Amino acid sequence: MSFKAKKIKKIYEGKVAGRYDLPISHMFSKYKKQAFRDSSLKIGDKVLVFCCGTGLDFSEILKKIGKEGKILGIDFSREMLKKAKEKIEKHRWNNIELIEADVTMFKNDNNELFDAGICTLGFSIIPDYKAAYYNLVSKVKDGGEIIIGDMQLASDWYARFNPFTIFLAKRFGGSFEGHQNSLEIYSIMRNDLKEVKKKEFFLKSYYYCIAKK
């Protein structure tokens, strides 16, 4: 694990885990909900969630895939996964499995392919973001859906707000470089995937992108 990756992991093993849900829900919840509403997720789908964190996305995903579906959540922070496990137990969700692992290197033992791969607010803080992205895509079956939601550098006159949004993201590991990397992920999706749809929010500093493999 690189020095930068260790630094990010330290952030999410510290106080951030205990204080993550409120600010993230306040700023991004409605955008995330819209992404899942716009997705093609359906009853019975098997969904892989990279950087699942405290499980903030689980309830919205479950609204689409139902009890018949399955979620596999991957995160490298034990503290964040503890919070996710608390949600699972509280809501008695019995179709969610959590694994502590680095998403750049995660391998599912049975080589199972998923109907959808999801990562929100993850790739922009991962130093080896391309490895994480390609690993997620490789785990999704042909015709499956890729859903990415993340921070980005805003363009046009909205670019004047980039220093402000990066400042807000810094406590969560955000950076100018990371927001730029997120834009590159979108560019890769446009080149490699099909039916790519993107929407921008929060002064164009947050986007979600939905595409087919």
Brief summary of the model shown:
By secondary structure, this protein is an alpha/beta fold.
Q: Can you walk me through this structure?
A:
The structure is a single chain. With 213 residues, the chain is of the alpha/beta class. It has one domain: Vaccinia Virus protein VP39 (Rossmann fold). It is built from 7 helices and 7 strands; from the N terminus they run ααβαβαββαβααββ. The chain has a 7-stranded mixed beta sheet, with helices on both faces. The two termini are 29 Å apart. The mean pLDDT is 94.
Q: Return the average pLDDT rounded to an integer.
A: 94
Stretches where pLDDT is under 50 for at least 5 consecutive residues are none
The number of distinct helices, counting runs of at least 4 residues, comes to: 7
Q: Give the biggest beta sheet.
A: 7 strands, mixed
What's the number of structural domains? 1
CATH class: Alpha Beta
Q: What form results from the Cα inertia axes?
A: globular
Q: Look up the CATH topology.
A: Rossmann fold
Q: Specify the structural class.
A: alpha/beta
- Assembly type of the chains comes to single chain
What is the succession of H and E elements? HHEHEHEEHEHHEE
